[in-house]
Amino acid sequence: MKYEATIGLETHVMQKTNTKMFCSCKCEYGAEPNIHVCPVCLGYPGALPVMNEKAIELCCKAGMLLGCEINPYSKWDRKNYFYPDMAKNYQITQADEPLCLGGQVTVEVEGEMKTFTLERIHQEENAAKNTHIAGASLVDYNRAGTALMEIVSNPCMSSAADALAYMAAVKQIMQYGGISNCDQEKGQMRSDVNVSVRPVGQKELGSKVEIKNMNSFAFIKEAIEYEIDRQTALIESGGSVVQETRGYDPDRGETFTQRTKENAHDYRYFPEPDLMPVKVAAEQLEQWRSELPEMPAPRRDRYVAELGLPEYDAGVLTADKATADWFERAMLHTKNAKAVSNFIMGEMMRLLSEQDMIISESKVTPEKLAEIIALIDAKTISTGAGKQVFEAIFNEGGEPKAIIEAKGLAQVSDDSALDGWADEAIANNPKPVEEYKAGNAASINFLMGQVMKASRGKANPGAVMQMLKQKLDA
Amino acid sequence: MSEANEGMDVGYVAHLARIDLTSEETALFQGQLNQVLQYVEQLNELDVEGVEPMAHAIPVYNVLRKDELGLSLDHADVVANAPSSSDGHIRVPKIIDQ
Known about the structure:
The complex is a heterodimer.
Chain A: E1 3-14, E2 51-52, H1 53-65, E3 69-70, E4 73-74, E5 77-80, E6 90-93, E7 100-101, E8 104-109, E9 112-125, E10 129-133, E11 136-140, E12 147-153, H2 160-176, E13 189-199, E14 209-214, H3 217-236, E15 244-249, E16 254-260, E17 270-271, E18 278-279, H4 282-290, H5 296-307, H6 311-318, H7 321-331, H8 337-354, H9 366-377, H10 383-396, H11 400-407, H12 415-428, H13 430-437, H14 444-454, H15 461-473
Parallel strand pairs in A: 14-15
Antiparallel strand pairs in A: 1-12, 1-13, 3-7, 4-18, 5-6, 5-17, 7-9, 8-9, 9-12, 10-11, 13-14, 15-16
Chain B: H1 2-6, H2 10-16, H3 23-41, E1 64-65, H4 75-80, E2 85-86, E3 89-93
């Protein structure tokens, strides 16, 4: 029998606000523990939460970017549980009237365009960070109460590849929209993954297993694949899948039982009496809609259609908004889109990754790259020399022309200099010369290499080729 | 209000609230809470056909604040208020399952 998997994701995204969701404490990652806390986020008696308008705006914008309908009326609920990461003993969330309803993400998975639908996005507050030590747990409430959105997909995916493509697309859209930095290492984007398996053709879904709280794409992939195999093997051997919550242990590459259905939490949701509902007016929505930036997909299409870039280049450049913005700034100073793209995808990305930097920190500005490209196009320097100039500026700063001068990188097209090198190459390599004359056109490349070597890379390859042909064909 | 009809499971509710009750207390509260529920149950006699459910009694919406930094508590006070602390963290009995 053949089996198919059904996967749904609950993706938590921390919004980019200055202050927390319901109090004016600062949101800061990596601060000293328990310095950004107040009576509201510590759950002191009598403290009253007040909504952060920026968080509401960002949640609605996230909804618009993901094609949701913005709920004209939404309200708050308490999710009650006892755990020290929530000092109030409840989390403020939205149960039955979330801010955003529906929505979808269209993304390419292994060469096929797929649309994954959303159930909803609701706003809630983040929990504190726990660290476990021998015999005790330590709690830092700086993160408690920060704005957190939960993007809930429908059970509409069928493989780890689907889930990863979906998450990558959501991440890209959130980053583009300025909703969240989605830095997974800082826990700004985490997913709970629901996986079930059923025989192909069976209508109802199998019992679902929820794998909690994963922030790494690699772990999500491993956990889904492990879970599909585990559940399939279980059903094939005549057993049945128990509905439960599992964790993923990356060291062992396995999921493990955390909580079964019998001892599932009873959260006793009820309306939050301390917070008034939210009504989003149509005019407000229009205002926010007008502020949304261009998304990666249309931007990619534009690079292909208007700038003539290959699909691959357009995809790489638009993968991250900062890179695409940088590219567009360079395009204000040059018309050679492919050259800009080559430099960004090649030298820029290599150097950024080697030095663990981001593009905004590069000493090569868009203007300087455009100047380097102009010098290459004018044949003042070779492409290879252009890369050296790029790297020199990246490391030390400086102006392209000054670096070309200081390093003696200007290309030699001057006949008298080339003449000597060409004669030398011909005199010293009789065999390739013979072969070329005998009709092996490729042999000229060897001679060309000798001239380039003699010039220490400064000879203009076009001019060298022309000169060699002139001499040999004569 | 199905709980009222079936009677309230005081033991379960006490567990959810992390309250330890003796069997005498459980029996005592069982009776008292059932009376409270029966009292509230009277609301079911009202015809609310066509009345929208409401989360609040007063029609106030969008009580918002600007995303601007306010004062947080002094760290020493926060830690002093906790039963136990360690390296600036609040220290609690070991927790693992969530």
